[in-house]
Design goal:
Elements: E1 5-7, H1 14-23, E2 27-29, H2 31-48, H3 74-85, E3 89-92, H4 95-110, H5 118-129, E4 133-134, E5 137-139, H6 148-158, E6 163-165, E7 171-173, H7 174-180, H8 192-197, H9 201-231, H10 241-245, H11 250-263, H12 267-270, H13 284-287, H14 289-311, E8 319-321, E9 326-328, H15 336-364, H16 387-403, H17 425-456, H18 464-475, H19 488-500, H20 502-511
Helix pairs in contact: 1-4, 3-6, 4-5, 4-9, 9-11, 9-14, 9-15, 9-17, 11-14, 14-15, 15-16, 15-17, 16-17, 17-18, 17-19, 18-20
Pathway: Amino-acid degradation; L-histidine degradation into L-glutamate; N-formimidoyl-L-glutamate from L-histidine: step 1/3
Enzyme class: lyase
Family: Belongs to the PAL/histidase family.
Length: about 525
């Protein structure tokens, strides 16, 4: 179990998000956060006791903000807000998404800009530490006024209402899960309902996780590209640093350097370096791998810059300015900056998958694979080899192209036209998760196919790095070339090795960490 994550006034790191979301790290509130929250709460309570209406404290919400709510109805106001906004529908989202969402909402609370009471924030930290995960649904967020429905389902659990998953994954009523953990529901007070649900936390959590996944997958794409260049008797000369330097995109240089390292000491590459080689230049899918993978890297790093800014933000409306003793409405809940890069990353995933599929397809065509059997089949005609594995790749790539259509341009008005432009950032994040999964599968099939081709190049020896990738597959139970066998389980084994990073770890144990 990783060390507990301390949530203070400053931003949580991407590593903190991953530790809590994926590794189940516990969460504690820092002393600075507790002090900041107390100061903000004093401002809220002073405004709540005043005669002047204050949005979110003594008024209705959204298009109903013009109604002033009397003091005796304000506790009900907060409960009604959470209950009515917990209106999600559709499949349950993944546990890691909900945990990331909760941590990031807690991080905003810790800045002292929302006015949430410390005891309410502590209960959210306790839910994370006890592994209690509210049930959040696929649909319900427009990515503006925050991820309202997803966050409301989490707030509902703090009230002891709605379904949750306990640490074992069992679906139980929130009240029962709290009681079993020795915790007690909160009675929400002025502004707390709004402070719990008005943030970009769901889309941001998914962005942080996607960036981590894509960084790993782009290193894996360099590996599978190197295996394809090698297996198709391509050259490594096009990856030379002096060629990259005359087009100085940083990601391109990194990818080319990785390819050069991965192909070092390859007997296959060395076998056709001589003057009798009549190959003038390789196909784009081989030769231009650094340009595509590099552009993807630069895009991911831009997205990481946006994520870093958002992690350092306090997203709520209205926001508490404790030093000035006031609460002010704002538009910081609008998810546009996050939505744009989520859509951008879906484009990246689709294109990296597309070039991977093209490299794979070249292995299977006798006219283009430089002496390998058709479809890498053992007995072509009797056996089909990897023919249909490429069909699977093609189907996934086509799906990724559809997922690359941006969600962020598809605003739809809501709340009686008060909220007349929204980001659709949650939707962009949900489709990006499917895109990351699809890219994982496409690269796994390239890995599987390239490994088979390298075996068929024997007695020529692959590079130490690519040999480690082939060996990892074989040790995982994926056999080498031979008569046709049930291929789906082998694809899923390769997918697991790519997703977990195990194949990348095996290669980096030989050549050192790739950039």
């Amino acid at each position: 179990m990783p060390a507990p994550v301390v949530v203070g006034v400053g931003p949580v790191s991407p590593e903190d998000v991953l530790a809590v979301a994926r590794d189940g790290a516990a969460v504690t509130l820092g002393e600075d956060a507790v002090a900041a929250m107390h100061r903000a709460r004093e401002v809220v309570e002073e405004l709540a006791s005043g005669a002047t209406p204050a949005y979110g404290i003594s008024t209705g919400f959204g298009a109903l903000a013009t109604r002033h709510i009397p003091t005796e109805r304000r506790a009900q106001l907060q409960k009604s807000l959470v209950r009515s906004h917990a209106a999600g529908s559709g499949p349950e989202v993944e546990r890691e998404v909900t945990r990331a969402l909760m941590l990031l909402r807690l991080s905003t609370q810790a800045t002292g800009h929302t006015g949430l009471r410390v005891e309410t924030a502590q209960l959210m930290a306790d839910l994370l530490s006890h592994g209690i995960t509210p049930v959040v649904h696929e649909y319900g967020s427009l990515g503006c006024s925050g991820d309202l429905a997803p966050l409301s389902h989490c707030a509902l659990a703090l009230m002891g209402e709605g379904p949750v998953r306990d640490a074992a994954g069992t679906l139980v009523p929130a009240a029962d899960a709290l009681a079993a953990a020795g915790l007690h529901p909160v009675e929400l007070e002025a502004k707390e309902g709004l402070a719990l649900i008005n943030g970009t936390d769901g889309m941001l959590g998914m962005l942080v996780m996607a960036i981590a996944d894509l960084r790993r997958l782009l290193r894996t794409a360099d590996l599978t590209a190197a295996m394809s260049v090698e297996g198709q008797l391509g050259t490594d000369r096009v990856f030379a640093p002096e060629l990259q330097a005359i087009r100085p995109h940083p990601g391109q240089a990194v990818s080319a350097a990785n390819l050069t390292r991965l192909l070092a000491d390859s007997g296959v590459v060395a076998s056709h370096r001589g003057p009798d080689c009549n190959r003038v230049q390789d196909a784009y899918s081989l030769r231009c791998s650094p340009q595509v993978h590099g552009g993807a890297r630069d895009t991911v790093e831009y997205a990481a810059t946006v994520a870093g800014r958002e992690l350092a933000s306090a997203v709520d409306n209205p926001v508490v300015l404790a030093e000035e003793g006031r609460v002010e409405s704002n538009g910081n809940f609008h998810g546009a900056p996050v939505a744009y890069v989520l859509d951008f990353l879906a484009i990246v995933a689709a294109d990296v998958a597309s070039i991977s599929e093209r490299r794979t397809d070249r292995f299977l065509d006798k006219a283009r694979n430089h002496g390998l059997p058709p479809f890498l089949a053992h007995d072509p005609g009797v056996d089909s080899g990897h023919m249909i594995a490429q069909y699977t790749q093609a189907a996934i790539v086509s799906e990724l192209k559809r997922l690359a259509a941006p969600a962020s341009v598809d605003s739809i008005p809501s709340s009686a036209m008060q909220e007349d432009h929204v980001s659709m950032g949650w939707s962009a994040a949900r489709k990006l998760r499917r895109s990351v999964d699809g890219l994982t599968r496409v690269l796994a099939i390239e890995l599987l196919t390239a490994a088979r081709a390298l075996d068929l190049r024997a007695p020529l020896e692959p590079s130490p790095a690519t040999a480690a990738a082939v060996r990892t597959l074989r040790e995982a139970g994926v056999e080498g070339p031979g008569p046709d066998r049930h291929l789906s389980p082998e694809i899923e084994t390769a997918v697991a090795l790519v997703r977990s990073g195990a194949v990348l770890d095996a290669v980096e144990a030989v050549v050192g960490e790739l950039s």
